[in-house]
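Students often ask why inverse folding is considered easier than folding. One informal answer: many sequences map to the same fold, so there is more than one right answer. In these notes we will look at a single instance of the problem. The structure comes first.
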């Protein structure tokens, strides 16, 4: 199961010893709490991932593993925050392929191992912030999305990426539900220049172990300056397109969810303010924190939106 190995921890110049010890005790704490077998990835035990720390990380304290893996959104496994941890063990994540097609010179169907071969995995500690007003700090293990794009060579006409989650009604109870909030497959999109930005990653692990199923195993997107729903899980296809692709939450409610969905405390969700967020896992008396423009990554990404009215392109 997930906590069967000691976590991969390498002392390094940019990981202060306090964080090192703290993470270790978080991992041991999670093991002691007897995390259920249901939250372990299916099949083989979670493998450790050799990842070097990335300077693109935040220096914030990561949220405890227990919260990262028990408070999820993954509607294919139910709409409750605890449903994915209960149900996602039924997803088979091996073998797994990701098809990359559309406006590229070298379309390919990559086996997951093949996808990982040329890349160096990095640990990147990124905030994830949901439109519902909660946030987490997650030590992802992943690699830049741009590395895959460079392998398939986008054509000059390619302007957007369309992402698709796997559809397996047999393994995904949410897809068998009588009433569905969303259409399947779950789909998301990015502009090509957003996708090429070094902060946009494909994650294959967290806390030095392969991704738990509820967090989007075996491979999911992480776009830290956008609301959580852009970070699509269990990806099987990426298509390069000329026009802006449809996205699941925008189709469901276009007034509430736009294509861009950059974290923006100044633009309220029609039903609530987006000015503050509640960090998960800090106890009953945790204080809401002010939400930062672009989730705090403004220095890196603001130039992608120069000249755009972000109240219109929300
Ligand atoms: N396929 C798929 N991807 C998804 C979702 C989903 O329901 N299905 N939920 C999104 C939402 S709303 C959020 S906030 C994040 C949550 O990621 P986490 O569970 O790893 O914290 O996943 C996103 N990716
Ligand atoms: Mo979300």
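Output (designed amino acids):
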């Amino acid at each position: 199961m997930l906590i069967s190995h000691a976590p991969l921890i390498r002392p390094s110049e940019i990981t202060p010893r306090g964080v090192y010890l703290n993470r270790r005790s978080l991992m041991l704490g999670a093991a002691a709490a007897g995390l259920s077998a249901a939250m372990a990835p299916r099949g083989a035990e979670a493998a450790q991932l050799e990842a070097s720390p990335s300077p693109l990380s935040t220096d914030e304290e990561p949220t405890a593993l227990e919260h990262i893996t028990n408070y999820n959104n993954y509607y294919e496994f139910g709409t409750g925050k605890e449903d994915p941890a209960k149900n996602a063990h039924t997803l088979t994540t091996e073998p797994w392929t990701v098809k990359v097609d559309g406006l590229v010179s070298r379309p390919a169907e990559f086996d997951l191992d093949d996808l990982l071969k040329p890349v160096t995995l990095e640990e990147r500690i990124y905030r994830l912030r949901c439109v519902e007003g909660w946030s987490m700090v997650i030590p992802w293990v992943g690699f830049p999305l741009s590395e895959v794009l460079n392998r398939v060579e986008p054509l000059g006409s390619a302007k957007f990426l369309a992402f698709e989650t796997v559809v397996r009604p047999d393994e995904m109870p949410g897809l068998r539900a009588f009433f569905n909030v969303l259409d399947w497959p779950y789909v998301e999109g990015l502009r090509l220049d957003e996708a090429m930005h070094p902060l946009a990653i494909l994650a294959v692990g967290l806390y030095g172990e392969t991704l738990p199923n509820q967090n989007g195993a075996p491979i999911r997107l992480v776009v830290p300056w956008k609301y959580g729903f852009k970070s699509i899980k269990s990806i099987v296809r990426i298509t390069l397109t000329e026009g802006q692709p449809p996205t699941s939450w925008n189709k469901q409610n276009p007034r509430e969810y736009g294509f861009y969905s950059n974290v923006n405390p100044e633009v309220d969700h029609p039903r609530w303010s987006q000015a503050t967020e509640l960090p998960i896992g800090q106890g009953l008396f945790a204080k809401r924190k002010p939400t930062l423009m672009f989730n705090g990554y403004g220095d890196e990404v603001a130039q992608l939106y120069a000249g755009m009215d972000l109240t219109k392109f929300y």
